[in-house]
Amino acid sequence: MIRVGDIIPDVKTMHKDSVATNWYSTHELFKDKKILLIGLPGVFLVEYAATHLKAYDFYYSKIKELGIDEVYFTSVDNCYVQNAYHKSENLSYLKNLPDPNGDWATSIGMLESMSKEGLGNCSHRYAMIIDNLIMKHCKYEDFTHNPMTCFQVSDADTMIKYLEIIQTNYERFNDDARDKVDVLGRNKISTVLS
Description:
five-stranded mixed beta sheet; 6 helices
C-alpha cells in the first residue's frame, strides 16, 4: 500500500472531453499541484455517493482557500460512467479520474473485492492529499461494518478540518518538497515528508 512520502504511481487513464478522447497519466494530471483525491467504490451504487461528492463540490472554494489546487474523484469505472455521473449530479468543480480496470486502485493498494455484494472489484473509499506527486496524507474507511454506506474519515467536513489544522502545525504543506523529488523515480525522496 502507498505510504506517506511515496511518489504516486504513473498510471494512464482515458478521458472523454466533449468529442475528444485523450489519454493522460496521473503524473501529467497531478504534477506541480496539490490534489485532494476522493476514492469511491462506485459512483452510481447507492445514495451515499451523491452526498459524499456534492459536499466536496459545495465546499470547493473553501478547500481551495486551504491550499488545494484541484479536487478529483476516482472509482473503478470508465470515463463514460464517471462523466454521466458528473452530469447527473451537476458537479461544477470536481474532476474525475477514470480507473476502469482498477489499475490506479491496485497500484496504491486500494482495490477491494466486493464480490459478496455482487459488485466485483471496486476502489476502497478514501481521501488522499497528493502534493506534486508525493502522497502526503490518506484516510481510508473501515469496511468491516458496512462497505456500502460508511464514510466517516473521507468526508468533506473531516478533510476540511484536517486542512485547517495543518495550516498552523508541523504537518503544514512543505512547498520545498516540490524541488526534492525525482519524479522519474531514480532517487528516493531525500527528506521525510509528513
